Every structure is written in C-alpha cells, then in structure tokens.
Records
---
Amino acid sequence: MTSSAPAIVCDIAEALLRAQDQTDSRALVFDGDGTLWQGDASEDVFQFATKNRMLRELPLQALRDVASQYDLADDGDSNQVADTLFQAYLAGKVPEDLVCEMMCWCYAGFTEGQLDDLIVAALEAASFSTRRQDALAPILAQASAQGWRCVVVSASPLAIVRQAVRASWQLAPSDILACRPQLTDGTIQPQLDTPLLYGPTKLSACAKHLASSEWLGGFGDNIFDSEMLQRAVVKVAVFPKQALKLCLNKLDPIFVIE
C-alpha cells in the first residue's frame, strides 16, 4: 500500500493500533541506516576516517587478507587497503556483508573512547543531525504515547549506531542491537566479537532480544531487512531501495513510505 508520505503514515499508525488489540507484542523493530535516518552512518564514519588517514596499523594484515581473497591490490597502509575494499564493494566485486564486517573491525588500535570521538567528528562533518527520517516522527511519537518498545537492529557497528540514534531519535540504548569488534585490554581488535546482524541474523537477534515473541511493527529499507519485516504484524518499507522493491510482493500486505 503506497500513497503520499503523510497519508501513509496515518494509515500505518491506525494499523498499529488495530494490531495492538490482536497481539501481546508491544514492540516496533527498526533498521537504522536508510530507515531511521537518510544515508549510512557507518559509511560516513569510515570515509571520514580513511580520507583523513586515521586508521591504525593494527588492522592492516587483516585488511590485506580480505583483499587477497578477491585479488585486489593490498599495497599501502590500512587506509588505502580499506578504501580499496570499499571501492570494490561499490563496483560489485566484494559482498556487502563482508564490507559491513570490515567497517566494524577496521578501527582496530582505537580505544572505545577514541572511536567515540572519531564518530562524533565524522557525523558532524556529514551534517548527520539534518538527516533524520522525519516521516517516521508520528510513529515514534505514537510508540512513546502507547509505551511500545522501539528496537533498532543494524549491520553497522554498535558504537556508530548508538551515536546516530542519540543524534536523531533518543531511543533507549539497551534496545539497540548491532555488531561489536573484539576488545583486548580496552583496545579494538581486527575481528568481530558478535555476529554481523544482516539478513536472517537480524531476525534471530531480534527474536532473542524480544523473547521470541511476535512484534507489532517492522521498518526497513533494503532486501536484507526482509526477514525482519516478514516477522512483524505491520510491515513498513521506508524509502525502499531497488532490491527491496523487487520483493515487496512477497511481503504483502506491506506499507511503503516513499
């Protein structure tokens, strides 16, 4: 179901209220990048870091190992190799989920505090505070008024998603699910500590977090949100990317904000 954004949001709000009477679930589940805000916060931070040559030496060998798997040039420092991988992803030569993982552990050598400082600077440089998806404001206000939990589940690094949420919607940090790099003595290491939340793992992470219960609403923008959307009573595609548009018929009935 598609119409103008204000009209469709009213329809979504009504559908959520109707669904509330038919289920014990009281949670809305949101993707982050492209859904709660425009663009990709993880890419903003990554590109800011590589442009300013801020990545450390610690992840270099891991980056070279990934580059060699795809027959990519692995000369240069961490910033150069990381950018080579990212450009190859944009050209369709490296899978998206692998690049998402890389953009989580590539900050190896940073402490958590140092990474937070980098994230704040990067999001400010990207004018992130102006990129909130305001079409969802009535839904978030409704959730607050009804006492519904709002869970964010993202393939981006947890530290970045927390900062992005703080800069946009002020949702509960305890309901933000995202991947984390491994830490040793407070320093980020070049590997993940938790699985990447991508596709089916988004669904399983949400199910575990919400005690496997059915949830009231699901909101996403891309094909790897489809499993998460399918689980929700009220399914909402938010300015969907082409890959998700191509499978909307499989998610029928679904609301589309665009």
---
Amino acid sequence: MVNTVKPKKFLGQHFLTDLTVAERIADTLDEYKSLPVLEIGPGMGVLTQFLIQKGHDLKVVELDRDSVAYLGKNFPDLKDRIIEADFLKLNLDDLFPGEFCVIGNYPYNISSQIFFKVLDYKDRIPCCSGMIQKEVAQRMAASPGNKTYGILSVLMQAWYKIEYCFTVHENVFNPPPKVKSAVIKMTRNDVKELDCDEKLFKRVVKTAFNQRRKTMRNSLKPILGKECEIFADKIFDKRPEQLSVAQFIDLTNMIAPHVI
C-alpha cells in the first residue's frame, strides 16, 4: 500500500489537507451530476474522494507518478480512469465525445494556461471550478475599472460567468503556500460567438493590457500605426481596464478595417 506522497516543489504541489474545504469544492459541481467530470491534479485524492461519493462519472489526469501510484492503490474503482499525463498536452476530444466539466486544485504556476485550454473547449465545458491562487481568482472575477481587471478577466468573461466562491487560508495545505488561495466557479454564458474577429479580439486585448497604464490610443499603435484616423474617437482616451467585454468587441470591429 502506498501510504503517502511527498509534495514536489518542481511540480508546484501543495496538497490540501482540509476535508471541509475539499467537500465545498466538490459541491460546486452538484448541478452537473449528469455530465462526466475531469479532475486535474488529484494528488492524493482529497477532492477525488468527494467527487466519487457524489456519484460523478470521474476521470483524473495526474502528471506525478507517485500520485498516480497512490491513487491506483487507494482508489481501486478509479484505476482505469487515471490518466498519467500533462493536462496541457492532452487532446480532450480523445477522452470525452460530448460535454464534460473540469475541476481541480490547480497547480498555481500553470493555472492561467489551464483556463486558456478550457477556452479551447468552451462549447463542451459548461462548468469549470476549483482552487487557484487568490490573486488570480480576483483577476478572473474583476469588473471593469478594477486595478486587477486584465487579460484573463476579459478573455474568460467573454465566455463564462465567473464566481469568486470563497477564500482559503494557506495553513490548510502541505506544505503551506506563500499565498492565499480561492475557489472559483466558471459557468458558460449564452454567448455563441463574439460578433467580431475572435483572433483580432484576443490580439487587441493582449496588446492593450501589455501597456495598461497607457491610453488605448498609445497602446494600440503596434496594431494600427501611429497616425490612424480612428484615433480621434473618444474610446481611445480610455485605458484598457475601463473597457467592458462588450466595448472590447465593439472596438475590435472598429479596428478591423484599419489593422496594419
């Protein structure tokens, strides 16, 4: 019997030890019992056990061999549903033919990359929830005008409703991280398409926030050149954190004919 797994710093592992917190995370998927679930980074299964208890059709993906061995020994019913792989490199079409949900105590060093991958499957993932660094959670849920509002806020909120569920103290982990954590829940909104060039939309958002202290007029010069005629519009007086998702969509359409 594999008794325990030693947390590995290079994998960014901080194992949750508080069962109450784990159960509350599992609760975020209660309304999706009919859909299969993919848990990312189960570690020693503190969240996994509650997902199983709740009757979810569960698969887990884990990169750490020691954790894979632990899960195989301690969760025998899960044995054929443990995928030893890097989530970021997985083709999720091979795992799920239809809709599915995503959950996890996500590795903090790659959480943004995980969510951007979720966006690639947004029409098949109606809900994604789990625990991340508090600062990232605040950024994802931030409203326009907030200093934490940024690239992640706009790109995620274009497709998902972001709910900041609750804060988690660092003392419920082994080892304790140096930052506080938070649980978020992302629920797919009704948007089917953005009514703009989505590739250009991403480019505009990223270019604008890469120089977030500048006005849109200055930050978007790499896309539009220095003397673009549409710079006279008042929207270019604003800074990127002042624009809503809808305004970024409108801006993208305005910019499209003038891209250099």
---
Amino acid sequence: MLTDSHCHLASHRFEPAEIPGLLERARAAGVSRLVTLATGLENVQANLDLAENPAVHACVGIHPCDVHHAPNDAVARLSAFTGDPRVCAIGETGLDYYHPAPEGWDEQSFRDRQRDFLRRHFQLAAAARLNVVIHTRDQTGHASFEDALAIYQDFHPSVRAVFHCFIGPWENARRVLDLGGLVSFGGVATFKTAHQVRETAGQCPAGSFMVETDAPYLAPEPHRGKRNEPAFVRETAERLAELRGESLEALALHTDKTVRAFFRLRPDSI
C-alpha cells in the first residue's frame, strides 16, 4: 500500500471534475491513500470536502507564502477544524525564505511573521494532539531549515514534525530524526542531479521517512516538467526502493506504518 503523503488536490491546477480520474489513476498505480493539505483558510473546506472520500485525508494550515494576507487570528480559526475526523495533521506550515517579501513587507518582518505563524501552528497541534507538516525553502544555504528546527525543538516532546519535500544533507535529516521527527521525499529524489537527496534517502532508517508528490508540483522522472499527480508517487517510491536495495513491497510496507503512526489514522481507516 503506497501513500501520497503530501499533495494539494484543492489546487486551482486541478479541476473538481478531474478528481475522480486522479484518484482512479492513483489506485491503478498502487497508491491507495492520499493526504491533501490546505494552504490557507480559503481552501480548508475544499480539502475537507475531498476527504469525504475514505481514501483521502486532510490537513489544515497556512502556508508560509500566504501569511502576509492571512488574518492575524488565522491559526486560531483553524482550531474549529481540528476535531473533524477528516483532519489528520496540521499543515502545510513552515518557513519560506526562497521567495522575496511581498509588496509592503521587508524581508525581516515577513520572516518574523512566518516564524510567528509556525510557532502558533505547533501550539495548535499540541493542543489538538496532532502532528505538523513543515515546508522549508531557501535560495541558498539552510536558514529556513535551521529556524524551523529551532522552533520544533521547543515542541518536540509533544508534537512530531515531518519536513516535507526534503532535499537536504543526511546531517540535517539526522537532526530531525533525533527530535523524533520525520522527513518525506518527493519527485526531486528521481532527478539525475539530485545526488544529495538520494544519499540522504539511502541513509534514512525504515520508519523515518514517507513518500510524497507535492502534486501538482515537482513531478518525478519521467514526468518532469508536467503537472504532477498522486499516481506519480509510485515512480518516486520505485526509485527510492532501488537506491536503498529493497523491494517496492518492503518500502511500501514500512512507509505505510510510518504514515499511519504520524497521521494517527484509525486502525480501520484506509
């Protein structure tokens, strides 16, 4: 059983009428579970509606690139959804130092607001007994990762975090794992030039990582440059299994256990 542990089915790049076909193609590829993530208050309900399908689970959060136009109480408003059985984690949240500050904001104030929102997401997760899905991205270096990890450090006894679409070195992954967190690998792991990602994936113990698409973004080889979709997580899983020297079936088995534990899925859930 493969899971696409991170996708955005409510993205404007997917028409609602396409969703049944996307889910069927995923099922045909051996992907039987999907986790779709909100990026702002405006698409929480759309993600919850998608999670009416028993194969789909939803996360609620404010993406770091959206904090500048989110109301100050945006994270508090998310608390209205944390008891919903369709909600399996808090996110997508995190820190994005890749994109420049939006008009009307300087770099420092924009990053301060992102860090404040990330901390609030952790507080919400702790109160709701849920875990957190984190985005980090930099132009160069690892500043967003370092800042996110420092915030996670304050909450790790009660909340687990997954650093999604992880592309960093093994040393950084190890620091996440040492706090009880996880990393998740997406289509970048299949790119020919992504040597660091593959080295990291090869060193991660079973039970410490998940597999994702981040659809509609970052399609794996051989679909690179196209719109990504959940069925394509199989290509990433196959590549990871190959470089780790294990079968696809073995990788699917241990990542399924990891997904179930992190997203706190009921034993009877898909």
---
Amino acid sequence: MPRPPWSPASDQLGLKAHVSGKLISAYESGWRVPTRPMTAGIDAVPEPGTHGALTELWGQLEEGMNYMSYPDWFAEWPEKEAAATSLCWFEPLLVPGLLRTEQYARALFAAQIGITSDQIDEQVAARLKRQDVLARPDPPRCG
C-alpha cells in the first residue's frame, strides 16, 4: 500500500502543531486517526482557520473511531472489559495488557517480526484507548 501523499503545506502545519509533516499527511489522507489532544493542537494553529471545528467533529465521531486494532480472537474482549465490575487474569511474564504504559506496549509490539511503524502506532493507540475503562467513575476491580 503506498504511503500517503506529502506536501510542503503538511510540513508547515506540522511545524506549527509540533509534529511531522508526514504525520499530518497521514491524518489528511485517512491513514491515521489523530488523538483528541492532537486534534486540539491542530485546531490551535491559526492558519487553517478551523476555529475548533476539528475538535468538535472529533467529539461527534469519537464513538465510531477505529481505535480497535486487535486480532480477531480478541475483538470482543474490550467490550467485555468496559462492562466488567471485576477483572482477573494471569500473565506470569508480562505486565497485563490493560496496565501497560505506552513505552512498554510500544517495545513489545516493536519486537514482532515484520510489523511496520504504522501498525505499531495503531496497536499502541488501541491499547491506550482500552485504559479508558480504568478512568471511569466506577472502574472494575483488578486482581
């Protein structure tokens, strides 16, 4: 699959939003989904003249955004996790997936043979999104 198109305008916006022009191009072409803070950062740049529209749109579309970069066998687990009142698992050699930091998750995904940096970014984003269940008002008890 070819990389998203790059343009000097993407570099200019990237400099002002403190990210690479290639990442801006990936957002523009739909290859990557920006996080809420990234969307707010782009909205804060005066030149596109979005005046908060990207952040508002992000909020409207949040429920349907594709952060679910999971293998097929795992597809139903995040929904069950979100509805759980208690979670229990056994992973003797690794920190449980739900509790992994971004750096730890990135290192584990990067160790996979043949994985691209885009795939790593998608999997890390999906892992971090799952952690929302821990910040809800009545989070599940973990043990």
